[in-house]
Amino acid sequence: MYTLADPVARAERQMGSRTAIVCGDERASFAELGQRCRRLAGALDSLGLERGDRVAILAANSPAYIEVYMGVPAAGYVVVPLNWRHAEPELRYALEDSSARVLITDRDPGALAGVVEHVVMLPDAYEALVSSAGERTLGEAVGEDDLAGLFYTGGTTGSSKGVMLTHRALLANAFHFNTALPLDPDDIVLVMAPMFHAAGSVWIAPAVWLGCRQVPVPVFDPKTVLEAIERERCSVTLGVPTMLAAIAEEQIASPRDTSSLRLIVHGGSPIASETLRRLHGAIPHCEIVEIYGATEMGPIATALRHEEQLVGGPRGRSCGQAVPGVGLRVIDDDWNELAVGETGEIAVRGPNLMTGYWNKPEQTAEVLRDDWYRSGDLGYQDDEGFVFLVDRAKDMIVSGGENVYCTEVEEVLYQHPGVLEAGVFGIPDDKWGEAVHAIVVRRSEAPDLSAEELIAFCRERLGGYKIPKGIDFQTQELPKSGPGKILKRALREPYWKEHERQIN
Predict the structure, then answer these.
(1) Largest CB tally within 10 Å, which of 58, 74, 320, 402?
(2) Is residue 110 classed as helix, strand or coil in its secondary structure?
(3) Phi, psi at 374, each rounded to 5°
(4) Measured between alpha carbons, how far is 454 from 437 in angstroms, rounded to an integer?
(5) Are 238 and 267 in contact (CB under 8 A)?
(6) What is the pTM of this model?
(7) Is 365 left (phi over 0), alpha (psi -120 to 50) or beta?
(8) pLDDT single digits (tens) 122-161
């Protein structure tokens, strides 16, 4: 039986003097990390928390984030990473839904302070709290099936879901990750994706367990990332395609010494072949790996090694094979497994899966059955188990590696008194992979309603990456299916056809 206390204990015992974290001028050894995690446990105890209580963090990447991510669950509490791109109503919903008692943050909490019992500001108040606390043993009365983290997938009150991941799920994912993409204790991990996101937090437990040094970058900037790689001799990193595209352009324009880098991993959204080519040209000695998964999967399900060698070929369009420890199949609407080559919904099974959505039994029952999770992604497998994605859930857009649910954006648009109908969908975007787009039918009493007015309306209610980049208007009602659902495919088709025409 393992919990998140075990990686901390192993690293401190076997590699205590080694450097665990480097962030600017800050450095901490694994012995110091272990001690600070124990002090954090004592500090939370002093605030009157009880086992299983939720502790939220709203902050940029930092050494403290790693302490909270590992130390809170190891102490028997539940960590709730919050997306700092979310608007205040979305953050409030997550705090209220999770019943978080503590918010650790590096920014003005504003009205959020009234939602929790304790606000601990980074860095000063946090440092004072941890430094003055007594140490408490980690892992006591904590089991592998206990909840370790609640990870909110995005959305407003209508769509946001807290993904429940246990200690077992997070540590199983660490094993799977290191089996598919082996780390070495001498690896130096650059963490450039935000740690509230699976792409940023996926490294934390494996790196601590093996004794790898982590170099968190507070906020992504390609120049800062390349300087960190050169200065700290980083060897592995992970990001979403938009990050890799920016790094490639910066490296081409102003080359740095990236010879230490051996592995670049990406996931979160589709990546263009041209981006891969430019990245490989800018950093030619480095292996590029694509991974596929979701927060509900812990998050990794498949991996495609040496993608730089496959680009342009038939398997270059694949997201790889299921990683060891994960079962994967393609199913129909009735959960029946389909044959090789048949397109259906991707389903995944393994100890890395979530136990369900917090406080949402009906939504949980829709996606979990007999230990299988249905992803909402459409695809097929070839005869060697390589997975090819052909579409995603109709209500999800992946923009810059962030999931945007169409229904939550539509919900906001419908709140505007001038909107009669609204359909939201993704259209091709060279920078973000997909951009949020809307088609709106105005009410007769609002003939002058403009796209600018609606976008400003959304900006007050949604995180920045969810705001429509463009809005078109039409006078006839939106196309609908027999049951009355808006046909998103019909709305999307002209935009994607035009994109195909432009690139062919």
Answers:
(1) 74
(2) helix
(3) -90, 125
(4) 12
(5) yes
(6) 0.83
(7) alpha
(8) 999 999 999 999 999 999 999 999 999 999 986 433 468 9
